[in-house]
Amino acid sequence: MHKEHPLTKNQQIIFDLIDKSPEPMKAYSILFSVQKKGIKAPLQVYRALDKLVEIGKIHKIESRNVFIACHNSSCQVSKATAFSICEICEKVTEISSTGLSKYLANFKDKDGMKYSKYNLEFFGLCKKCR
Amino acid sequence: MHKEHPLTKNQQIIFDLIDKSPEPMKAYSILFSVQKKGIKAPLQVYRALDKLVEIGKIHKIESRNVFIACHNSSCQVSKATAFSICEICEKVTEISSTGLSKYLANFKDKDGMKYSKYNLEFFGLCKKCR
DNA sequence: TTTAAATTGTTATAATATAACACCATGTAA
DNA sequence: TTACATGGTGTTATATTATAACAATTTAAA
Ligand SMILES: [Zn+2]
Ligand SMILES: [Zn+2]
Ligand SMILES: [Zn+2]
Ligand SMILES: [Zn+2]
What we know:
Radius of gyration of chain A: 16 Å
CATH architecture of chain A: Orthogonal Bundle
Low-confidence stretches of chain A: none
Strand order of the largest sheet of chain A: 4-3-5
Number of helices of chain A: 5
Distance between the termini of chain A: 39 Å
Number of strands of chain A: 5
Bound molecules: zinc ion
Helix content of chain A: 25-40%
Shape of chain A: globular
CATH superfamily of chain A: Winged helix-like DNA-binding domain superfamily/Winged helix DNA-binding domain
Order of helices and strands of chain A: HHHEEHEEHE
Largest sheet of chain A: 3 strands, mixed
Oligomer: homodimer
């Protein structure tokens, strides 16, 4: 079991927004949405995002520069993430497959090196778009 | 077998630079390096990069916004890529493991969907840094 | 040769992210 | 209690990454 991090005010505001969003969010659209709550500057957003990523409450989709709430509690420990991304509508889904995560955690490169931390992004078409 | 793309002048200049670089390169450091060859504007660099990525001659490391020459000829067909990234020195190595690529190409998400296109970034410490 | 597609050159601007500094809250150790 | 360390906040300014829009040129087919 992982340790609970109590969120600070800014972190909570931004986490709630991302968590409720039906789509991954961009940093500046987060900024726009929270301006009425007194968060006015990009840095305030990025600092909260950094922390939320660090503690595993959200993930950054690196190929898209968007943020999504985690829906797989084991991420908060492992930093091992996998997503599918629709190339038409940009829908992102977090993948939680024990088989996949075991395979990747046990994968050894040609130097015999293992990696417990990774990020995998699958690209294709979602149900609706294909 | 894949079709050979003859590179245009700008594409060739930029590919050569990246290919010879011992490290992955950032777009604006590429721009700086090729200014003596007459490439003056960011767009000229980004257009060449886009094309080179599209035809699989280089890859973008999404978590770092850097570009690296491909060292795995099958990428030029598949768009299925995997890298290891050192979190200290930022050394990037392209992984070509038949086992890994087969596993990922055959992976099905819970809707039974397969993805032939993916990007995997492993994080850890390289030989020198650990 | 005509035409379509791709590439180039250029200026300007958008989108993403961090530096630097002052201040404040909270916990903890002397 | 006081000092100190740690982490969060607010703010201004700036750095970094990437694209829009438009005109001109080259290339490769039809
Ligand atoms: Zn997660
Ligand atoms: Zn879709
Ligand atoms: Zn490759
Ligand atoms: Zn290293």
